[in-house]
Amino acid sequence: MNYRHAFHAGNFADVVKHVALARILAYLGRKDAPYRVIDIHAGAGFYDLAGEEAGRTGEWRGGIGAVLGATFTPEVAALLAPWLDAVRALNPAGPDTAPGALRFYPGSPLIALALTRPQDRLLFCETVPEVRGALEAAVGREPRAKVLAVDGWQALHAYLPPKERRGVVLVDPPFEDPHEFPRMADALVEAHRRWSGGIYALWYPIKDVRAVDAFRRAIERARIPKTLNIQFDLRAVRQADALSGCGLVIVNPPFTLADELRLVLGALARVLATDGTGRVRVGWLTPER
Ligand SMILES: C[S@@+](CC[C@H](N)C(=O)[O-])C[C@H]1O[C@@H](n2cnc3c(N)ncnc32)[C@H](O)[C@@H]1O
């Protein structure tokens, strides 16, 4: 497997995924009861945007870079705040760093660590040893979190349901394998059978619209109640091998999430989709039973 998330860290697709994740965690944190974050494709957790990989593609400039340079309405700014606070916490002003300057970007594990509370627990799976080593260094001696060398798909069998019976499972595979879409749909059905009350957030790329349609239909056929689909098109699809957008299937979303994402992703589309063809769709695949 050649995938290295460091090339893409902080790009528009990370922005969409991490904003949604942060909104879910903000909602879970409204109640004192502990919850669990299970991130089954965790990545390195921490990215140097001036490093070799991110520096080579510069994708972050059209993602987090553009967001930090934009102005939003107070309502949108409030919805972005938990995620942006996690980003800013990694980029403190210092003797060599201007206030507001961006050098480091948190992956989903560090965003989750920043937004969870002392009573919450986190599980991160990462199978690539080198990436897992970087993740362990990023997580450090954090007693709330475990980094596992476990295949994320297997973790759905081994770790569901979590003892807290509240929480979120993030499914964010590299999509290097053409069978990733059907595997993700099957894994969701199986995981939901084990833990029907969990929130599941499944990220997917929009390149090949037929693959996306087939995935959407597979999820619809599964008839899992309360399943939301979000599509963020940065531009009209031109070639099936170029990322033109991304989506998230979210099962059991907080009741606030659909409206929040319509508002905040709409504002982000205006900033990130610079050629005017950006579009956001938020709709139910299966509503509440
Ligand atoms: C898209 S990246 C994850 C990005 C991360 N979730 C974030 O938002 O910052 C996918 C990661 O999953 C890892 N991976 C691939 N297959 C895996 C598997 N079966 N189990 C666990 N991790 C896997 C890859 O090495 C890669 O680091």
UniProtKB/TrEMBL annotation:
Keyword Transferase carried by entry: yes
Enzyme class: transferase
Organism domain of life: Bacteria
Keywords for this protein: Methyltransferase, RNA-binding, rRNA processing, S-adenosyl-L-methionine, Transferase
EC number(s) stated in the UniProt entry for this protein: 2.1.1.266
Similarity comment: Belongs to the RlmJ family.
UniProt protein name: Ribosomal RNA large subunit methyltransferase J
